[in-house]
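Page 47, continued from p. 46.
Same chain as before, 359 aa.
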Amino acid sequence: MITISLCMIVKNEQDTLERCLKSVQDIADEIVIVDTGSTDQTKKIAERFTPHVVDFEWIDDFAAARNFSFAQATMDYILWLDADDVLLTEDRQKLLQLKQSLNPLVDAVSMNYHCAFDDHGNVTLNVRRIRLVKRSNKYQWQGAVHEDLAVKGIICDSDVVVTHKQMHGATDRNLKIFENLLRQGKKLTPRDLQHYARELHHHKMYEKAIEYYLKFMDLDDVTPEDKIFICGKMADCYYQLGDRDKELAVTLKSFEYDVPRPEFCCRLGYRFLEKGEFHQAVFWYKLAADSPLPSNSWAIVNQPSRTWLPHMQLGLCYYQLGDYELSYRHNEIAHTYRPNDEQIANNLRLLEELLNQTV
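Result:
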């Protein structure tokens, strides 16, 4: 059985750190906590779980802090988490089984990351990330912000899920780091270009975000998955700017890289729905609802566009077309995904009355 060092970097995480560590303390053979300048109770909480609490002077570089944390590890493999991540009971058991059965020839293990949720607890965004790496390979983190591990060798794609349970609101910290790098005249890496654009997007600086999304798209060796993802981001920027023609153009451009993904089908469905062209809208929403998962396990999966959203919209379209039975059926499906959604519940009650009147 392999041994595991859990390596984390933290700052002012007193509200989340204990929850995270409790979820993995029976899995990690060693816990290394690197503190980058906490002023709350974070270090005291960490010291209840491990003697390996180390200070690191923050230099606006997440990769440097991560690499320092990895350098403290002594076990066979290194697992990394953020303080607002957690392993749920089922995934804790899966990771324990993985620890017992992992072939030591494996260099790295990826895990699914449920990183965003709606207000009903449904996963809205799932990505896959490298989470466990062989220490002797001395893999290095790259990128001052939204850092990533550069790995090669034998990679195992596991079914373990890491769940993100964010408690703190968004800040402009990452945006400021990028802007400071630019002021210093430093050239952004391809990964930095993408993430700077996403920070601009998040802060509603849509025109500048598009500028950097396009710079990223123009690079060589951008993967089809990245191009699809960026098309979606640019489509949203154009929508927010009110440029519906460019929104349409970049939506259709995504079809150059793979079969139509459900998030783009929903975008087209909404375009027709707005114009009252319900038959056309039905076509695109049905295509979204029936879309299989991408064959690439590393694809970023937008869950609402393949689950409740197209069915709720199909319910609206069929209602407008006077087909109350189909409208009810699709609202029922949407309700299975969002059982506490009052709007869908109201739709079902209204449709039940209409269907009873026609009997």
